[in-house]
Design brief:
five-stranded parallel sheet; Rossmann fold; alpha/beta; 294 residues; 2 domains
Length: 294
């Protein structure tokens, strides 16, 4: 069975709802989602190994059903850490006679950076180097710079810009505009359940980490409980209970990650982003009324 030749790629921006958007689009009948969602194919070595290797990311693709193959790799919009992605895709497209369209979703850049700090520190990015992580996130949030490569390489008509805030507020209209860009049928109102749910959020990730840590400690305590009950008399256990509970609370309490943007970081990101974010918003007529002022 022939593999896909028409592709839609969510290139970013990270922490702007790309996972939610991917799931919304992959659920449409004419769209086949990649496995995994973020193959990072064109940002890593081996991107020029041939068409069949790329097409293998869509094992469920059926040309009788699907019109588009979808992937969502946010590394594609993380210049300069991952350079030359647009140029690679253009060369791959020309060599194999393919067609690519690009989707870029944005949000309040301050919220992007705040969420990215939580995500990156929890995941141990850059070996815990917060300063390096912050610089990386400021570059990611420079929407104007990250999209320039796609506008210049493929032309503005093959790049669709959308806002997470719009997707959350009016999913039906926002997805309808996106589907018109992709030239596929939009979902019916009956298939859309109100506002877009947020996946892969910082709050969800922190809750998952807390739950995992709690389960790990609980398993250890259960193993010790039997020994403790046999060695320490019951009366003494009752007397020691309040003290042990306070000690356990101190041991099990997870330190609060340093997610807050410091005053110095606020100044740095304002100096770096105020002008390009305003330029980007004006270019695409974005509503910044709900965004944190830069």
């Amino acid at each position: 069975m022939p593999g896909p030749t028409s592709f839609a790629v969510i290139v970013g921006a990270m922490k702007c709802g790309t996972t939610t958007l991917f799931n919304e689009l992959a659920a449409l009948p004419e769209v086949c989602g990649s496995v995994p969602k973020e193959p990072m194919y064109f940002s890593r070595p081996g991107w020029d190994d041939g068409l069949s290797r790329y097409q293998a990311l869509w094992p469920d693709y059926d040309p009788a059903i699907h019109r588009l193959a979808l992937e969502g790799s946010t590394e594609y919009a993380k210049y300069p850490d991952f350079p030359n992605v647009a140029e690679r895709i253009a060369a791959f497209e020309a060599e194999h006679g393919l067609s690519f369209r690009f989707i870029y979703i944005v949000r309040d850049p301050i919220e992007l950076i705040r969420s990215g700090l939580a995500h990156g520190q929890n995941a141990g990015w850059f070996d815990g180097d917060r300063e390096r992580l912050f610089r990386h996130l400021v570059q990611v949030a420079d929407f104007e710079q990250q999209t320039t490569f796609y506008r210049e390489t493929f032309g503005p008509d093959r790049l669709h810009i959308m806002q997470l805030e719009a997707l959350t507020a009016d999913k039906t209209a926002t997805l309808a505009r996106l589907c018109a860009f992709l030239e596929i049928d939009p979902p019916s109102p009956f298939e859309i359940g109100g506002t877009a749910s947020r996946l892969n959020s910082a709050e969800q990730r922190k809750a998952d980490l807390d739950a995992a840590a709690g389960a790990e400690h609980l398993d250890r305590l259960r193993a010790l409980k039997g020994i403790y009950g046999k060695v320490v008399p019951r009366e003494m256990r009752e007397q020691l209970r309040p003290t042990l509970q306070r000690m356990a609370g101190r041991v099990l309490r997870r330190p609060e990650p340093q997610w807050r943007i410091s005053d110095a970081e606020q100044v740095a990101l304002r100096n770096a982003l105020a002008e390009p974010v305003a330029q980007f918003a004006d270019r695409y007529h974005l509503d910044r009324s709900g965004w944190t002022p830069l």
